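Lecture notes, continued. The same structure-token format from the folding unit now serves as the input rather than the output. Read the line below as a description of shape only.
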């Protein structure tokens, strides 16, 4: 399981021109689920995202988490994060979890964040989505479970 986490001042995801989810200050989380991922990876990664200190304190240092700043998370499924690019010019997605399995773990990840006290907005699993965000910093970090 892999997440690309971007600190944002605002973000939204649209499907067919309609807003599916939007947040103000917080994290845009692009989430990829790999074959073999399970409940342990979900819980570990959700905890890391909620507690990851990428928001500045009074001195400008990364010392505040999503929980500390009471920020929200916009979680968007993105199987392409699991791409294998080692050979050739076309990515292989054979290590991505099958859609039904990935959707279940994606939903469990969102619920795990909510259980930790994070406000969560989402895209639509499997849909063609457009994500717009204002990356604050910019801060973009890859987290693996």
């Amino acid at each position: 399981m892999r997440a690309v986490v971007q600190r944002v001042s605002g973000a939204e995801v649209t499907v067919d021109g309609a807003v599916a989810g939007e947040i103000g200050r917080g994290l845009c989380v692009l989430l990829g689920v790999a074959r073999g991922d399970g409940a342990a990876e979900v819980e570990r990664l959700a905890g890391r995202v909620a507690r990851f200190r990428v928001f500045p304190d009074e001195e400008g240092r990364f010392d505040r988490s999503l929980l500390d700043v009471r920020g929200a998370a916009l979680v968007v499924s993105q199987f392409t994060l699991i791409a294998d690019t080692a050979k050739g010019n076309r990515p292989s997605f054979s290590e991505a979890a099958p859609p039904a399995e990935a959707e279940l773990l994606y939903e469990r990840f969102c619920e795990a964040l909510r259980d930790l006290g994070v406000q969560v907005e989402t895209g639509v699993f499997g849909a063609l989505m457009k994500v717009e965000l204002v990356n604050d910093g910019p801060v973009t970090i890859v987290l693996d479970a």
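Point for the exam: Helices lie at 39-51, 66-69, 99-115.
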